[in-house]
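Private note to self, pasted from the team thread so I don't lose it. Backbone tokens:
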């Protein structure tokens, strides 16, 4: 973690290293299985695997920001948003990221980027309309914590493994079929096994990123509350944002749902998800943690 005034979190660091290790291992195993099953297409698979890995590392943050409708804004276009980010970056002693707005009524925010120099923090128009200044600063402090702890980079890269697995599966099947022919027994086996392996890779990577995502949200809440010294403002923002989600049209929520791992609060268009599949801890868990931090800060102040 780069040196900032955000409270360090060794538990988060350990989980990020573990997640990236297993994600990388999955990637290597998946490529190896493709090479074994579709031998005739190995040059194409190696070139695609290498190219997609580089693209995943360098462009996944931009793809995520574009997919969520982020539009970079200048201080003249969004003075209040830039002012809040300026104050928090000065307080945290960290470089200022790029600032963006997403034109959607879904009240939310996210951060993305490989590192602090390439980071981007985005708030939606729905969030800016609904929150008070101190609540907005709490949300932005939460998102800047993701940048400072670098967990946003891990999530951005890891979340695209399933997409890569699907793309490589299609190419491998196409390459194997065109080289082996439909009557080849090995090709028939490959046609059955490759989609299965791809599905397993996606499922494992999905669960790994969900486990990390839930912990990193609690970590960001804690770091933001300690940095600003106002856990109650962040708790109020969480309560307001979560409560407003029910009033957002289902169509808009469904557009935001695929990117829940990046959002400040999950956009849910249906019923409640199981805790295993959820990208965020429950609202009660987050509020309880902020309540404990508020009590600790109050005791420290009296001391």
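Design output:
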């Amino acid at each position: 973690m780069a040196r900032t005034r955000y409270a360090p979190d060794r538990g988060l660091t350990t989980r990020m290293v573990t997640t990236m290790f297993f994600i990388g291992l999955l990637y290597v195993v998946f490529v190896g299985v493709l090479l074994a099953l579709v031998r005739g297409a190995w040059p194409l698979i190696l070139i695609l695997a290498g190219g997609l890995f580089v693209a995943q590392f360098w462009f996944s943050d931009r793809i995520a920001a574009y997919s969520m409708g982020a539009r970079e804004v200048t201080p003249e276009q969004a003075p209040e948003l830039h002012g809040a980010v300026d104050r928090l970056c000065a307080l945290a002693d960290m470089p200022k990221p790029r600032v963006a707005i997403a034109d959607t009524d879904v009240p939310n925010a996210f951060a993305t980027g490989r590192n602090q120099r390439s980071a981007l923090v985005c708030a939606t128009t729905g969030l800016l309309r609904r929150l008070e200044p101190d609540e907005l600063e709490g949300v932005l402090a939460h998102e800047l914590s993701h940048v400072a702890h670098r967990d946003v980079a891990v999530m951005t890269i890891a979340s695209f493994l399933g997409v890569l697995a699907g793309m490589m599966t299609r190419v491998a099947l196409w390459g194997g079929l065109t080289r082996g022919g439909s009557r080849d027994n090995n090709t028939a086996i490959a046609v059955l096994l490759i989609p299965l392996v791809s599905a397993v890779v996606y499922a494992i990577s999905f669960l790994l990123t969900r486990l990390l995502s839930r912990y990193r949200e609690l970590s960001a809440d804690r770091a933001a509350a300690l940095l600003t010294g106002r856990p109650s403002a962040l708790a109020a923002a969480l309560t307001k944002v979560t409560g407003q989600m029910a009033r957002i049209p289902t169509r808009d929520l469904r557009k935001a749902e695929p990117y829940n791992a990046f959002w400040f609060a999950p956009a849910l268009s249906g019923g409640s998800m199981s805790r295993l599949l959820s990208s965020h801890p429950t609202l009660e868990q987050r509020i309880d943690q902020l309540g404990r931090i508020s009590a600790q800060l109050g005791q420290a102040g009296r001391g």
